[in-house]
Amino acid sequence: xxxxxxxxxxxxxxxxxxxxxxxxxxxxxxxxxxxxxxxxxxxxxxxxxxxxxxxxxxxxxxxxxxxxxxxxxxxxxxxxxxxxxxxxxxxxxxxxxxxxxxxxxxxxxxxxxxxxxxxxxxxxxxxxxxxxxxxxxxxxxxxxxxxxxxxxxxxxxxxxxxxxxxxxxxxxxxxxxxxxxxxxxxxxxxxxxxxxxxxxxxxxxxxxxxxxxxxxxxxxxxxxxxxxxxxxxxxxxxxxxxxxxxxxxxxxxxxxxxxxxxxxxxxxxxxxxxxxxxxxxxxxxxxxxxxxxxxxxxxxxxxxxxxxxxxxxxxxxxxxxxxxxxxxxxxxxxxxxxxxxxxxxxxxxxxxxxxxxxxxxxxxxxxxxxxxxxxxxxxxxxxxxxxxxxxxxxxxxxxxxxxxxxxxxxxxxxxxxxxxxxxxxxxxxxxxxxxxxxxxxxxxxxxxxxxxxxxxxxxxxxxxxxxxxxxxxxxxxxxxxxxxxxxxxxxxxxxxxxxxxxxxxxxxxxxxxxxxxxxxxxxxxxxxxxxxxxxxxxxxxxxxxxxxxxxxxxxxxxxxxxxxxxxxxxxxxxxxxxxxxxxxxxxxxxxx
Length: 592
Hints:
There is one protein chain. The protein is of the alpha+beta class. The chain folds into three domains: 285 residues, Beta-Lactamase; 101 residues, no CATH class; 200 residues, 2-Layer Sandwich (Heat Shock Protein 90). The protein is built from 14 helices and 17 strands. Strand 9 and strand 10 form a beta hairpin. The longest helix is centred in the N-terminal third of the chain and has 70 residues.
């Protein structure tokens, strides 16, 4: 199949048996790309529209669900306030035998009769002491065995909300029975001279809960329901949905097992009840015939416009591209002096100029690579020279021999250990990158050895900021600077020379400061050293400093490098600046 398609394309594109023409290939490619892109964009936009519409619906439903939850919470708090008012304002402060108690019960009932079915007060033994509804009589003989009564007595100090049930403890003033939710609490009652425990029962009308949830209008595929803390349904708009899950204690919800729904859940404070909102996903679609026809018309119109534009562009692009291909072929053969005459469409003109710039950049890059390779080779030679200084090694070995001959074994061990650490870090298994901690340790060992060689000639101090020890640096950038300070700055000092080494973390950079109180230099000499203009045969040519400066520039580029401040008879301060980069990140650059 693929081979047939290829043969057909070659036949259609070709002219007089030659290879496919650029004009036709561009036209066909642009057209097919535009068609595929149009289809992908159409599908993408359609999916995005559905997702956005679905998200908007979800947010609106969640807001309405939160409003419903807030309404139920407000309602329950109001009923709890009624219970508090009746308990603390009437029952606890008055003798139950007073007529005002019955009046208070009746007044609260009349005030909240739209939400309350009955208000009753029982003794701990289940005897009816007060009731709000005139004419209502207790007909249930053993109320103490009811679950809500027992739970109330076992949770003294809390208001207990029971499960929905039919009001069956009182004779009804009207025919039929009402569904209620019992709300009860333990109260302390004044009966004559004694204080006894009792149970205050407020039967909340189930219809009040239904009205609250019924006022929340969601989409056709969304609904709210109410459960207790155990998941038993207290209210559901279609209670029969859960009839199959009835277990004798309530209706268990299983919406979490249903696919393609979004569930919102919010706990109602004190009661532990939960308002659960269920939204059916995927309910939004472009089902309108007009919408489908409009999208199809736009697609066809867009494709026709593209066909016309592609025919025009294919002719305009093919000619300049042919000239561009010829010039690129010459560059590919190695002729980097070829000049490309950019022409044609803006894109082709940009392409020609871009290839010109690429060619010029390639020439400069090749020249820079040669220069950089040469500079790196020279730098590596100088690094090796600084790593293994024969005079330094011979003088250190002479000190060790002298210490052993004079039975100063502890000092000899100290020098040998410092020398071993010095060369261990100098070699570093051939790695050019080490941690700042190793670089500081290297110069510390170097100074320890030099301090023993030049007894009483100088002292040194090293300070390292916290958090920089594990950062990376180029190996052996401190030793050449410190070596200059010892051999040149301290040359005429006698016992009061000081070398201060500081490693500072400022912003995104690390600064190594090496400062001495030696003889110092003039501004002209500083400039000459920094510019590498010192006589190679003179003393203090700054070869080591130039080596450090070149290596920092090669690795990190501008603005990093070496800076020097000095005044005659005031000392010299050399500052090395590198970026604050982790050791691992610096190693990843492939410098080793």
